[in-house]
Amino acid sequence: MEIIPIPTDTYTVGFIGAGKMAESIVRGVVSSGVLPPSRIYTAHSNPARRAAFESLSVTLLPSNDDVVRQSNVVVFSVKPQVVKDAVLKLRPLLTENKLLVSVAAGLKLKDLQEWAGHDRFIRVMPNTPAAVGQAASVMSLGGAATEEDGNLIAKLFGSVGKIWKADEKYFDAVTGLSGSGPAYVYLAIEALADGGVAAGLPRDLAFSLASQTVLGAASMVTQTGKHPGQLKDDVTSPGGTTISGVHELEKGGFRGTLMNAVVAAAKRSKELS
């Protein structure tokens, strides 16, 4: 069957599942102007979730069947354990003229495509900073997804952060790094702030300094293009304060512990999938 291109100027997007991740994506898409809210659809019985999407001027429809009928692009954003049921129930409406997308962790393209009955599917792994427009997302294209399909999804998810394309075989490692990684960074921020308090800082000031320092350091890496090791060397003067702190981190196995955390989370992702 010939794949009909998605109309780039008039396409519509439907979300099956109106949870926090879907809300974050919609908020980014609308605020960036990538797509007007009038061309975004979802359905949900929970009044609070409906109100969240109504506040973005998204069209609320009576059922998921209606959402699929109205949409060129269908994004499955329900919890991983209910994706199979959701896809199978909607399968008669999921024609090859519709581009299907899953943001559910751990579900492989081969299964998604089998449930849908065709392989015009794209799997996307975003992370929670999508809520503030700073997601790190990775996508992998199914067999019938075209380059144009990929570009369209890259533009949508690019509105809530940065997105890369990669082979699906890397997705467990992606989960271990960027999927779980925000939690590691939150722990680091909390620990830095606790250190500040231990050194005599007021709690509020310590948290503010810790979070801004992490944000600033990450921005230095992304904006200068320098290797993190070089940036580290730039602030470690001979016999100075920073090298003393770095020495303590090395004695505690800081880098090895972070590496182990990523590997452990990737291994768990593989087990779950």
Can you walk me through this structure?
NADPH binds at residue 64. Residues 12-106 form the Pyrroline-5-carboxylate reductase catalytic N-terminal domain. It catalyses: L-proline + NADP(+) = (S)-1-pyrroline-5-carboxylate + NADPH + 2 H(+); L-proline + NAD(+) = (S)-1-pyrroline-5-carboxylate + NADH + 2 H(+). Helices cover 53% and strands 12% of the residues. It is an alpha/beta fold and 273 residues long. The chain folds into two domains: 13-171, Rossmann fold (3-Layer(aba) Sandwich), CATH 3.40.50; 179-272, Orthogonal Bundle (ProC C-terminal domain-like fold), CATH 1.10.3730.10. An eight-stranded mixed beta sheet has the order 3-2-1-4-5-6-7-8, sandwiched between helices. Helix 2 links the parallel strand 2 (40-42) and strand 3 (59-60). Helix 7 (171-179) crosses helix 12 and helix 8 packs across helix 9. The radius of gyration is 21 Å and the shape is elongated. The mean pLDDT is 95.
Write the layout of secondary structure elements.
Elements: E1 13-16, H1 20-32, E2 40-42, H2 47-54, E3 59-60, H3 64-70, E4 73-76, H4 80-90, E5 99-102, H5 109-116, E6 121-125, E7 135-141, H6 147-158, E8 161-165, H7 171-179, H8 181-198, H9 203-224, H10 228-234, H11 241-251, H12 254-272
Parallel strand pairs: 1-2, 1-4, 2-3, 4-5, 5-6, 7-8
Antiparallel strand pairs: 6-7
Helix pairs in contact: 7-12, 8-9
Subcellular location: Cytoplasm
Family: Belongs to the pyrroline-5-carboxylate reductase family.
InterPro entries: 6-PGluconate_DH-like_C_sf, NAD(P)-bd_dom_sf, P5C_Rdtase_cat_N, P5CR-like_CS, P5CR_dimer, Pyrroline-COOH_reductase
